[in-house]
């Protein structure tokens, strides 16, 4: 993800996270730490062949711990493995940052995302009460140890190719 991706990313962000969408400034701030020798962030976009944004994801590294900051796929593209490809990319980045663990928070009512993370071997380790505001929704905290060797995901079908590239 580069600064010129932020406008289309914001459109998708506001559609997928209407209650707590990140601001333009938050994406700028994340990208400011994504380049150069001291980089602590890894952000990626997925586009179709015409260059239309289909998804994006970001990871933050701190010492030997990494956090999945965000992962999102345009609803029309759900169920084709793009979320899996984005997560695979983040885990590669966590390995490159030499992180031993990857953590994330996910809404307790977001079962689709939880299934994605479980397929990669993330395990629930706790709950943060009222983490998502407004709405006072709890967050499930999940952890993956050894991101260099995640559980191989097993899609339900293999007939359809993912619609984009990361
Ligand atoms: C969560 C999210 C990123 C998943 O993205 P996705 O592209 O649908 O993810 P995948 O396609 O890799 O996996 C979803 C399902 O498709 C299946 N699938 C994967 N590859 C497939 C393929 N090639 N063909 C058919 N189905 C496939 C998976 O098995 C999975 O099935 P399951 O839900 O029954 O386990 C997406 O739903 C999203 O953006 N949600 C809104 C934002 C959000 O909640 N983000 C997470 C915040 S913590």
Characterise the protein shown here.
It comes from Streptomyces evansiae. Keywords: Acyltransferase, Cytoplasm, Ribonucleoprotein, Ribosomal protein, Transferase. Belongs to the acetyltransferase family. RimI subfamily. There is one protein chain. The chain contains four helices and six strands. It is of the alpha+beta class. The chain has a six-stranded mixed beta sheet, sandwiched between helices. Helix 3 (82-96) links the parallel strand 3 (65-73) and strand 4. The chain binds coenzyme A (COA).
Please give the structural blueprint.
Blueprint: H1 6-16, H2 24-32, E1 41-47, E2 53-62, E3 65-73, H3 82-96, E4 101-107, H4 111-119, E5 123-132, E6 137-145
Bound molecules: coenzyme A.
Report the top-level CATH class: Alpha Beta
> How is the quaternary structure best described?
single chain
Major beta-sheet overview: 6 strands, mixed
CATH topology: Aminopeptidase
Query: Strand order within the widest sheet?
Result: 1-2-3-4-6-5
Strand content: 25-35%
Helix content class: 25-40%
SSE class: alpha+beta
Domain count: 1
Overall mean pLDDT stands at: 92
């Amino acid at each position: 993800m580069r600064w010129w991706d932020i406008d289309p990313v914001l459109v998708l962000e506001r559609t997928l996270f209407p209650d707590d969408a990140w601001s333009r400034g938050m994406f700028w701030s994340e990208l400011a730490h994504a380049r150069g020798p001291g980089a602590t962030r890894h952000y990626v976009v997925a586009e179709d062949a015409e260059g239309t944004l289909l998804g994006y994801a970001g990871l933050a590294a701190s010492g030997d711990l990494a956090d999945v900051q965000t992962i999102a796929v345009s609803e029309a593209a759900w169920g084709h493995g793009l979320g899996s490809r984005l997560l695979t990319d983040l885990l590669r980045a966590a390995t490159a940052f030499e992180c031993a663990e990857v953590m994330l928070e996910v809404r307790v009512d977001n079962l689709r995302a939880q299934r994605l993370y479980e397929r990669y071997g993330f395990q629930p380790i706790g709950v943060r009460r009222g983490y998502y505001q407004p709405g006072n929704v709890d967050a499930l905290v999940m952890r993956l140890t050894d991101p260099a060797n995640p559980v191989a995901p097993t899609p339900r079908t293999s007939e359809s190719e993912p619609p984009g590239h990361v």
